[in-house]
Design goal:
Blueprint lengths: L1 E8 L3 E9 L6 E10 L6 H4 L4 H21 L3 E6 L1 H5 L3 H12 L4 E2 L2 H13 L12 E6 L4 E6 L3 E7 L3 H8 L1 E2 L2 E2 L5 H19 L9 E5 L1 H10 L7 H4 L3 E3 H13 L2 H5 L12 H15 L3 E4 L4 H9 L1
């Protein structure tokens, strides 16, 4: 057994998984899995730079994670950074800070690499199930980008496009420094236009409509599952491998886009860091389901973070 630590630093959140990995079988047993909303991508779409406050929040989370990794005695550590740090002019400042705190240099991976990790993490435990028909379409809706991966046991095609819950919110729903509450139909239409253009781009290389099972990853999708189940609090065990119908996703999306901040904040299963961006994330999922004619989405709590851990095993 090898004790590994994987860190996934995205546009909206940074997450840690410490686990024991069996190097013979590839099995992984979680020891510690946690997430912190740091909004590293704050303003990146507009300025092209990582904001000082966003870096401070991220480095504070890194210091917390360093203590957890040390406590568990992880032998291997891999830190992967995604959309926001790919886009930023000052990403060297981010790299130096992580290296100082955790002792490893963050790998600012490409969208294609991100897709590979997401697919492995999401589908490895689905192989062999006779209730889910292949090929899979794995969709990872992040803060700054969305990854599309089609495959069976292995990846057949993948594409990353620059639509995510934070990017769409900041681009279309922020007015005078505040999120419009609720957004106008014109602003919602503008988000939808960006999403449709991104789907057109993804379809140039990924056969989205050939997939038989849609697997949805990341906070926007898992939050929709929690809302659909009317959970009294966020419950990973009940969310993992839950299924949400297209009709329920549409109903939830419409409510999120017409609700106020206070109404969304009152949802007990919704993380406070997602209250302002969940509407845009839900709209991305809805548009994908409509594009491919999906009757439901299979929700996975295992994603890029698990893929990073598998790579260490």
């Amino acid at each position: 057994m090898t004790r590994v630590a994987a860190v996934d630093c995205g546009t909206n959140s940074i997450r840690l998984l410490v686990a024991d990995a069996d190097t013979r079988t590839g099995d992984i047993v979680d020891l510690d899995r946690r997430m912190t909303i740091v909004r590293l991508g704050q303003g990146v779409d507009r300025t092209g730079r990582l904001a000082p406050q966003a870096l401070q929040r991220t480095f504070a989370a890194c210091r917390e994670y360093a203590a957890v990794i040390k406590e568990h005695g992880a032998e291997k550590l891999r830190f992967v950074a995604t959309s926001a740090s790919r886009d930023a002019e000052n990403r060297d400042e981010f790299v130096r800070g992580v290296l100082d705190i955790l002792g490893v240099e963050p790998e600012v991976i490409t969208g294609g690499q991100e897709a590979e990790f997401s697919f492995t993490g999401a589908t490895r435990e689905l192989i062999g199930r006779d209730d889910l028909t292949k090929p899979y379409l794995v969709v990872d809706i992040g803060g700054g980008s969305t990854e599309f991966v089609v495959g069976e046991e292995h990846v057949r095609a993948a594409r990353s496009v620059d639509v995510g819950c934070v990017r769409m919110t900041e681009r279309h729903l922020v007015l005078d420094g505040k999120v419009t509450d609720p957004p106008t139909e014109e602003r919602i239409a503008a988000i939808r236009a960006d999403i449709e253009a991104a789907l057109d781009l993804a379809e140039q290389t990924v056969p989205l409509r050939e997939a038989h099972t849609l697997v949805g990853l990341a906070g926007s999708v898992t939050s929709i599952s929690a809302i659909a189940q009317d959970l009294p609090e966020y419950d990973s065990a009940r969310i993992h491998h839950s299924r949400v119908s297209y009709d329920r996703v549409r109903e939830i999306t419409e409510w999120l886009l017409r609700s106020t901040h206070a109404e969304r904040a009152a949802v007990p299963s919704l993380h406070p860091g997602r209250v302002d961006v969940i509407g845009a994330g839900a709209l991305v999922l809805l548009a994908i389901m409509e594009r491919i004619g999906a009757a439901e989405v299979v929700v996975s709590e295992h994603d890029i973070l698990d893929g990073i851990a598998w790579s260490l095993a």
